[in-house]
Specification:
The protein has about 625 residues and is an alpha+beta fold. It is about 40% helix and about 20% strand. The protein binds ligand BES and zinc ion.
Length: about 625
């Protein structure tokens, strides 16, 4: 546990102190960690909420540091290596339990001696517990293993023509265990070092201190000094280049995209400065961005020091940088103060959407952030509608995902209901007080897990200690109740209202297409217009819009997506070739689900299945999981 003491890298004193207190646990007491009894006491004090999605028993024995040595084999599609962990154990610990999912365990050792191990039965989503007997005082456990070629976290993108192959991982929520045996629970943190061998000609990158140039022999070393949970472990290997865009910020991308990426994200450092100005010193040193292949199933993933992002946010005009603001905000909400279990996911995402909007407001102004908030409100109302009847409990902020895939919690509830709840608190107590409170919250719980109940207790003794304020907010309705409570803050954006009025007039035939101010509209306005077109908009009217605006040729993938969804619903066939090529190239689930669903709902299943058949081999498991179900694929 002492490795943190040697580090002189942390810029904020508060943060440095927090790391020493909290290197692995929730309520860790400020102890001298060197004496056994102090350690035993601390472990006893580390009672933490139970994570139903991990087999680990951190109160008995837990990992505190990882030393990873691995070889990436593109031909076999495997990662093989040894994960050596420094561990801390309770006085009576008899075993240490790891999470694994479709890993082949080749052998283990405890303190350098070959050891026994046993693998429990596989459980849906969770995989198999790996249990290693240990004796009192054990310090190091090493596990030699190989991952499965079909490992869910990994996407192997084949070489094509003169394009090099690419590999990336996506560990959140519980997929880290498909490429490394680990205690895969967001409440368990560890620092790490790694040595990784990739094929010559590729650069390897991790959620750690990274190389900035290709190493001819394909060997790379990494160091992550701050303790992180397993879902933030990340690896990528590809032919990427590095380009500085600021003092602490750079982008990595394949040669074809590096110039465009450097321009698109040229304002990253400003976002970082704005974020620090709001809620305190950035704790991770550098903030870089890696542009992944288009098959990446998400928009972005907040891997510490190196956000992973889809290339679909490169629009050419910096219009989609809110996503970077979002992932950057996770450097506080999520990566510093971490949801203790996946039932508390809203603590990660709700705060992050709130923080994202504040960064956007600081850098681009309130008008822009309110447009974004208005779109988020619409998304939320639609989502509540969609899941309210199916599974009303899934509209609570606090979830109950036991026995389910934690991925089920990734809905607009965590994000946008979470956002509006936090915004309500801000509006209730006033921004100045709220901001001071939030900075304090991040500093107090830095490098710790946070669960909903503990958060509520904290709120009640801090921000909402006054009974009138507490009653006005109505915590229980928001956190433990369904849908959207009546005191949900209202958002209004005059520009979005104008779009709505223009759309209504256009649909009523009161204005012509030529009169619509498309060219004056920014992305949010265009998106609003297209995504709110009536489902039964005629082919003639779609043709008019397309002729006027050449929407199929836009560089903004959000606008293109909204357009193609409407094209499917309207049966506007000129857009179909673009739809098909888009679905084959892009694997971002947020786009795939509505597009395939639109085909399904409009009796165009033949087309959906024909496209899916071609596209599926290129998608990540996170996307095929959802699409297989949607399209009843087997
Ligand atoms: N951490 C999430 C992505 C995630 C959540 C992956 C749950 C796996 C399980 C990331 O920060 C995120 O929210 N990404 C969003 C973008 C954002 C702007 C809303 C996405 O990818 O769409
Ligand atoms: Zn997020």
């Amino acid at each position: 546990m002492n490795q943190y003491h040697h580090s002189g890298r942390f810029s904020g004193l508060l943060i440095a102190a927090a790391i020493m207190l909290a290197s692995c646990a929730d309520q860790a007491a400020p102890n001298d960690s060197t004496t056994p009894s102090a350690k035993a006491q601390r472990i006893a004090a580390m009672k933490q909420v139970t994570d139903q999605h991990s087999f680990a028993r951190p109160e008995e024995a837990r990992i505190v540091h990882l030393d990873w040595s691995a070889r990436i084999d593109f031909d076999a599609r495997t990662i093989s290596g040894t994960a050596t962990y420094d561990i801390e154990t309770a006085a009576d610990a008899q075993r240490i339990v790891f999470d694994t999912h479709e890993l082949t365990i080749e052998g283990v050792s405890v303190d350098g001696q070959p050891g026994e191990f046993s693998l429990g039965d596989a459980q849906p989503f969770l995989g198999r517990p790996l249990s290693i007997p240990i004796s009192t005082g054990a310090k190091k456990v090493a596990i030699q293993y190989t991952s499965d070629p079909g490992a869910d976290a990994l996407l192997w993108v084949e070489a094509q023509g003169d394009k090099a192959p690419f590999l990336f991982t996506q560990s959140q929520a519980i997929l880290a265990r498909t490429w490394i045996p680990v205690q895969d629970s967001p409440g368990i943190r560890f620092s790490y070092d790694a040595d990784v061998q990739v094929p010559e000609g590729l650069m390897a990158l991790m959620s750690a201190e990274n190389p900035t140039a290709m190493n001819p022999d394909g060997r790379y070393s990494f160091k992550m000094e701050q303790p992180i949970p397993a879902y933030l472990l990340a690896l990528a290997a590809g032919q990427v280049e590095y380009r500085d865009v600021g003092e602490r910020c750079a982008v990595y991308a394949v040669p074809e995209l590096i110039d465009a990426a450097a321009y698109e994200f040229g304002e990253m450092e400003q976002l970082l400065l704005a974020a620090e100005e709001l809620y305190g010193t950035y704790a991770w040193d550098r903030y870089d961005l890696l542009i992944l292949p288009a098959a990446f199933p998400f928009g972005g993933m907040e891997n510490p020091r190196l956000t992973f992002a889809t290339p679909t946010i490169i629009a050419g005009d910096r219009s989609l940088v809110a996503l970077v603001a979002h992932e950057l905000a996770h450097s506080w909400s999520g990566n510093l103060v971490t949801n203790a279990t996946w039932d508390d996911f809203w603590l990660n995402e709700g705060f992050t959407v709130y923080f994202e909007q504040r960064i956007m407001e600081a850098v681009y102004g309130r008008e822009t952030s309110e447009m974004l908030a208005t779109l988020s409100y619409q998304g939320l109302v639609d989502e509540v509608d969609a899941i309210q009847d199916l599974n009303p409990d899934d509209t609570h902020l606090k979830l109950h995902l036991q026995g389910r895939n934690p991925d089920d919690g990734m809905t607009a509830i965590a994000y946008d209901k979470g956002y509006f709840f936090i915004r309500l608190m801000e509006e209730t107590v006033g921004r100045a007080r709220f901001d001071a409170w939030l900075s304090d919250y991040f500093a107090t719980y830095a490098f710790k897990g946070m669960d909903t109940e503990r958060f509520v207790d904290y709120l009640k003794t801090t921000l909402l200690s006054d009974p009138t304020t507490l009653a006005a907010v109505n915590l229980d309705a928001w956190i433990y109740g369904p849908g959207l409570p009546p005191n949900c803050p209202s958002v209004s954006s005059p520009r979005i209202q104008n779009v709505d009025a223009a759309l209504a007039a256009w649909e009523a035939g009161e204005t012509s297409t030529a009169d619509l101010p498309w060219n004056d509209w920014v992305y949010q306005e265009r998106y609003r217009f297209l995504s709110n077109l009536a489902d039964d908009t005629s082919v003639e009217r779609m043709t008019e819009l397309d002729n006027a605006w050449e929407i199929g040729a836009t560089g903004n993938n959000e606008i293109l997506f909204a357009w193609m969804e409407q094209a499917v619903r309207s049966g506007y066939q000129p857009a179909y070739p673009r739809l098909e090529s888009f679905l084959i190239e892009v694997g971002r689930r947020k786009f795939l689900t509505p597009l395939y669903r639109a085909m399904k709902e409009t009796d165009q299943m033949d087309m959906a299945l024909a496209i899916y058949k071609q596209a599926r081999p290129g998608y990540h498991a996170v996307a095929t999981g959802t699409m297989d179900e949607l399209l009843s694929w087997d």
